[in-house]
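Notebook B, p. 112. Complex prediction, attempt 2.
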Amino acid sequence: MVNELYPYIVEFEEEAKNPDLETHRKRKRSGNSDSVERDAAQEAEPGAGLETASSPSQCSVPPKKGKDAPTKKESLGHWSQGLKISMQDPKMQVYKDEQVVVIKDKYPKARHHWLVLPWASISSLRAVTREHLELLKHMHTVGEKVIADFAGSSKLRFRLGYHAIPSMSHVHLHVISQDFDSPCLKNKKHWNSFNTEYFLESQAVIEMVQKAGRVTVRDGMPDLLKQPLRCHECQQLLPSIPQLKEHLKKHWTK
DNA sequence: GTTCTAGAAC
DNA sequence: GTTCTAGAAC
């Protein structure tokens, strides 16, 4: 049986956390300089991004009047589409029901870090309307259930929320414990994306959709990622990521 | 989103 | 000299 959305298999590159892989850490770069932020700020484009460069069976995609036809190698092969693929992988799925699926973040920024994704293709919060309200509430509820099921006995605090300008396509709710004890947390952008207003509380997003019918974000979000590093527990300023990470240890409940 | 690395910061 | 950050990745 053919999966219409994902007609070909994309292999995930396993991250080199395995010491055995150390010797061939060098790998081809697959860089793409397209601006992610601008991309995320645009409206959803239904139908776009489902074709592949090497798909013999799907020859004719309705050509979008001349200009920005899908000329470049992108779409599903592009890193920003990775969630669409991960969420389909049973090995990644921690929970699923008719509306949503939960996977572990591939590069967790804390001891517990999950993503709740709807099966429905919603590119980002920009595309969210009141008709998605119940879905957003369900995503939140499922997030809380996953916490209860997998970290219920821990005393860790959790937050649920969305990045104001996500890098990855497909709406995803972050469910993340507040220890931020993870080797994948490496830079200022990582920290500030979860510890400034760049992180939009799920509850606030739900209320915004309820009241305004859509999600709007204040200007200057990219600048928030460059703000000085401040401890989320005691507000202390730290001069570098290594020093922040060392500081965080004193708040651990371990 | 990550990796890699030049050169700034210490 | 070493640590650390920040920008490119065709």
